[in-house]
From TrEMBL:
Key enzyme in folate metabolism. Catalyzes an essential reaction for de novo glycine and purine synthesis, and for DNA precursor synthesis. It comes from Flavobacterium jumunjinense. It comes from the Bacteria. Keywords: NADP, One-carbon metabolism, Oxidoreductase. Its EC number is 1.5.1.3. Residues 1-160 form the DHFR domain. InterPro entries: DHFR, DHFR-like_dom_sf, DHFR_dom. The keyword Mitochondrion does not apply. Pathway: Cofactor biosynthesis; tetrahydrofolate biosynthesis; 5,6,7,8-tetrahydrofolate from 7,8-dihydrofolate: step 1/1. This is Dihydrofolate reductase. One of its GO terms (molecular function) is dihydrofolate reductase activity. Belongs to the dihydrofolate reductase family.
Length: 161
């Protein structure tokens, strides 16, 4: 199963200048719990936004740079299809960004785990529109803003129809 996982604002904003535009600790915990011990696929810029590889996950980085050096335990490839082919077929694989990789993966994914952040922000990277003809919302869990979360947000799970 291929799952897209992202956090996007009401205007589909993902980030700006290769960084997130909010800090939501509970969303980080959810991301960690869902992706730990799985393969994660990302673009080079997303990978470079991390201070180091995320623990207990196999990283596959999509890049056009043939000589791109990655730490041990990480892999590179030059296309989304090749990245998916590296992943075990019997385990869930996560697409974790960025915007272009999300756009390419919308036709290939089986599930979307989207954290909808209830604000609109300025951004340079956006999540693609979710077409209701292709996706069914199967779960929605609201989280109000609090002392640790600047914005209200909702965990949304979509399954391909």
């Amino acid at each position: 199963m291929i799952t897209i996982i992202a956090a996007a604002a009401e205007n589909d904003a993902l980030g700006k200048d290769n960084d997130l535009v909010w800090h939501l600790p509970n969303d980080f915990k959810r991301f960690k719990s869902l992706t730990t011990n799985h393969y994660i696929i990302m673009g080079r810029k997303t990978f470079e936004s991390f201070p180091k590889p995320l623990p207990n996950r196999t990283h596959i980085i999509i890049t056009r740079q043939e000589d791109y050096i990655v730490p041990e335990g990480c892999f590179t490839t030059n296309s989304l299809n090749k990245a998916i082919s590296i992943c075990p077929k019997d385990k869930e694989t996560f697409i974790i960004g960025g915007g272009q990789i999300y756009k390419q993966s919308m036709e290939l994914a089986d599930k979307i785990e989207l954290t909808r952040v209830h604000t609109e922000v300025e951004a340079d990277t956006f999540f693609p529109k979710i077409d209701d003809q292709n996706w069914e919302l199967t779960e929605s869990i609201f989280h109000p803003k609090d002392e640790n979360h600047q914005f209200d947000f909702t965990y949304l799970t979509y399954i391909r129809k």
